[in-house]
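Dear support,

I submitted the protein below through the web form. The confirmation email said the job was done, but the results page showed an empty box. After a refresh the structure appeared. I'm attaching both so you can tell me whether what I see now is the final result or a partial one.
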Amino acid sequence: MLKKFILSLTAVMALSLIVIAQSAKSTTVEGFIVDKHCSAGDVAGHGKGCVLSAACIKSGLGVYADGKFTAFDEHGSTLAKAALEKSKKDKGAKFKVTGKVTGDKMAVEKIEEAL
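What the results page shows now:
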C-alpha cells in the first residue's frame, strides 16, 4: 500500500514539474544589447565596438529594457553578437528580443533589430 502511494505521489510531482516547465511563455522586449559590465552606464550611447570586445563579452551579454538588465543564455549571447555585427548602427541600435525569462536570465529564441 505504501509503495503504491509513493509511486502515485512521485507521478503527480513529475507531472507538476512538466506543467510548470511548459507554462513559461515566451516574451518579447525591445531594448539595447549590452554587456553586464557596462549595463549600469549610458546604454543608448554605448558603442557596439565595446560590447563586442573580448572583456565585455566575457562579462556576459543581455538586453537592457524597461530600466532593467536581463542576461542572455549562451545561445542568446551568440545570437546577440551576430545581431550586433550585422547592424549598421554603431550606437543606439534597438533590438527586439524574444525568449523565456527565468529569474534574471533569458533563454533567447530570436533577436532582430527594431526599425
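Response: this is the final, complete result; the empty box was a page-load delay. Residues 25-113 form one domain.
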